[in-house]
Structure formats: structure tokens, C-alpha cells
Amino acid sequence: MLIYAYQTNVMCSQGKNMKEQMTSKERFTAALEMKEVDRVPYGYLWFGAGNVILKKMNTTMGKAYYSAEGIAEAQILAQKTYHHDNVMSPWGCILVEAEALGTKIKIKENDYATVEEFAIKSVNEHDKIDPEDILSSPRVKTIAESIRIMNEKIGETVFVGAMVQSPMLLASQLMEVSDLCVEVMMEPDGTRSLLEKLTKASIMFADILIDSGAHGIFVENGANAGDLFGPDISEELIFGATKQLVEHIKSRGVYVISQNYAEYPFIDLEFKLKPDALSFAKGDLTEMQKGNICLIGNMDQNVFIQGSRDEIEKEVKRCMEQAPEKGFILSTGGEISLETSEENMEHMWDIVSSYTGK
User: Fold this and answer.
1) Are 327 and 314 in contact (CB under 8 A)?
2) 37 near 27, Cβ under 8 Å?
3) What pLDDT shows up at residue 152?
4) Is residue 17 included in any domain, yes or no?
């Protein structure tokens, strides 16, 4: 059971007062390393409750999200407004790599971009995919520059995260998901050839973000789940490619956070990847502690836009009371809706900042 100290009389092992002695970056990284923290870290995913921030900036999603300065300014303002311990780029539009590799996207003024036309129609068209296109993509350069700006402005005190797609999830943004699910079983050789190229592309993108100053990489791994494939296929095809990406990122000396917000994630395979942390939506926090890695989650993000103040309080406390004493970052199991109110976000923070455990 979680016992974090918000009281002013709680002492750390050196006899010092532990209340708010850490910077956000120190707190976040300590949790990733399974170390003692002064209070439970609060993790922020993508651009939750982002419309409030855009209004404060007097801008729109279409303007902010397609400039490095806009992304950085919005993330920094969100961190100040909502009190979380990290920032991140790119946001909930997880199409940066796919666009670089040929998928055409539709930009929206007040929402995330969506797919307009997929790059390929079959895994056997893998010859149309050139991983080197990652290096020349304007959108990739925009995301990389946003990381550089955030690291320069707040990187000394706030954890700067970046997000990369796992190879199979990236495949699902290059062709129709329904066709991909069939061809994974019917065309295994073509699938392997495609995944080989996408692994190279994901590694290239990760390197660019790390070189720009990211302290850690969130690897979006939602394809590792029964929502799309069986466990045998996941272990045979998906795991190996994702493992190669994870090991490369770790070799660069930055943290790896595996993100899996699927309904039926293969948790054992997530632990087998050996990331520094697992950010998840579905699963019991008490049971998940068997992985002996930092856990990030798993509040229901829908409560913050649909629930009452009492329901928000119950959801926060549910996670806090189930969480381990070390190696835990309170967050949601997916992005909080862009339309969530500032009042609900502040109410959540009031609960977190006053919670003393029991």
C-alpha cells in the first residue's frame, strides 16, 4: 500500500523534511529507478485537458501542434497549470512516423490529425517503405525541435519525454488495421520484412529525439495485446521487433517507458521487454507489482470529463491506495480528453497534493 508523505513532519532517512524537496525531474526519475521520493510523482500523457491551455495561449490546435515553439509553449504552460512532473512530445496524434513514411494525414484546426490515405495496402508492399525518410521529414524535425526547446527551457527541473511507436503499431498506421491483422497470419514473411524496416525507422526516430535532449522515450506498444493478435503471434512477431527498439534506446542511456493502454494487454510480454516503467490502463496495481518495475497509471481518464467530483476523488484514491511504496507514478490509462475542464484537473491535483495514505 502506498504511503507517501505530504505532512510537514515526515522525515526521510537522513532526518530531513521530505515535503517537496525534489524537483519534478528528480522525483520522476527517482520513481523510474525504484527509489524513494518526496511525494507521489504525477505523470502527464500527451496533451490532456489541452483545450484549456490553447485558450490561455489564444491559439488553436492547428496552429500550436504544427510548430515546435507552439508544442513547447503549450507543454510548459500545461505543466505549470496542472502541476505534473513531466512534459512530452509528440502528442495524441501518433502519426508522426507514419506521415514521414508515406501516410497522408488530414490536419484539423481544433483536433488531432487523422489518416487521409494509408501509405501501403499490404505488408508485401514493404519495398515502398524507406526508413531513411524519417531523417528528412519536416514533422520529425518539428517534434525534435520541440524537445530541444523544452529541454533548454525547463529540462533542468522537469522530465522531458518523447514518444516513439513500436514497429507493429507503426504498421497499423501505414495500412488498414483489419488488413494488417489478416496478413500477419497469412503473409508472415512479408510481415517480417515490413517490421524489419519499421524497426529501423523507429530506432532512427528515437535517436533523433534522444539527440534533441529527451530524458526518456515512451514506446507506444498497444499492438502487444489480445485486442488485435493472439499471444503466440505477439511473442513471435511483435515482441522481437519491439525488444530491439527498447534495447537500442536503453543503450543510449535514457529511460524507456512502455505504454500499453489496450483492453487486453499481454502484460507478461511487457515485463519481458524489461523497460524502466510500464504505463498501462487495464490491470490491478497490486497484481502488477510482480514485474518489479516502475508502474505508471492507471486512473480512468474518462472520469475527468464524465465523472462528478466525488467520482474523481474515488478514482484518484483507488490508485493511491493500491500503489507500491516505491516505483510508482500516478497517471491515467490514456490521454485525458482535450475538453476536460481546468476545475476537474485542479480538483484531482488537490486530492493528490493533500493525500497522506494510511
Assistant:
1) no
2) yes
3) 98
4) no
- Residue 184 amino acid letter: V
* Boundaries of domain holding 182: 24-354
pLDDT tens per residue, range 108-137: 888 888 999 999 999 999 999 999 999 999
What SS3 state is found at 255?
strand
Let me know: does 208 contact 144? Beta carbons within 8 Å.
yes
Predicted confidence (pLDDT) per residue in 192-204, tens digit: 999 999 999 999 9
Residue 312, by phi and psi: left (phi above 0), alpha (psi -120 to 50) or beta? alpha
Cα–Cα distance, 133 to 136 (Å, whole number): 5
According to DSSP, residue 223 is labeled T
Q: How far apart are CA 237 and CA 125, in angstroms?
A: 18
- Residue 10, domain member (yes or no): no
Distance CA 45, CA 87 (A): 8
Q: β-pairing, 328-332 with 294-299?
A: parallel
Render 277-337 in DSSP notation, one character per residue. EEEESSS-HHHHGGG-SEEEEEE-TTHHHHS-HHHHHHHHHHHHHHS-SSSEEEEESSPPP
How many folded domains does the chain comprise? 1
Closest to 77 (Cα-Cα) out of 42, 53, 110: 53
Is residue 13 in some structural domain? no
CATH number for the domain that contains residue 229: 3.20.20.210
| Cell 488531432 -> residue | 112
Residue 296 resides in a domain: yes
Distant-in-sequence, close-in-space partners of 261: CB < 8 Å, separation ≥ 6? 222, 279, 280, 281, 282, 333, 334
Determine phi and psi for 272, rounding to 5 degrees.
-65, -25
- Computed on alpha carbons and rounded to an integer, the radius of gyration of the chain in Å comes to 20
Residue 106: Cβ within 10 Å count = 10
Predicted local distance difference test score (pLDDT) of residue 19: 58
